[in-house]
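Morning!

This is the sequence you dropped in the shared folder:
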Amino acid sequence: QLQLVESGGGLVQTGGSLLLSCAASGGTFNYKTMGWFRQAPGKEREFVAAIYWSANSAYYADSVKGRFTISKDNAKNTVYLQMNSLKPEDTAVYYCSCIGYWGQGTQVTVSS
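The structure's back. Tokens below.
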């Protein structure tokens, strides 16, 4: 069973940066897509970014293009989300997902 563990969330000011990590273990996820989603209070969970494990193709929501970068370290089975120029509207719980599995989430709070 695949396990995903996120880390790196926290409180930052507007314009700041955070690096989220998602460590995967316990399953076969090669040739799959790994993604980041987020859910703000009172809102539905939304797509943020995704990357193919076997390639470097990446996809982003329009709201984060140019500010967020998704990357991976195959040797560490870890996916990263570098978040720059953070805005208060980026405040949410960020989740890592792969083949239907979800991590526990990590809170990101951006103060104005």
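Headline: The chain has a mean pLDDT of 93.

More detail when I'm at my desk.
O.
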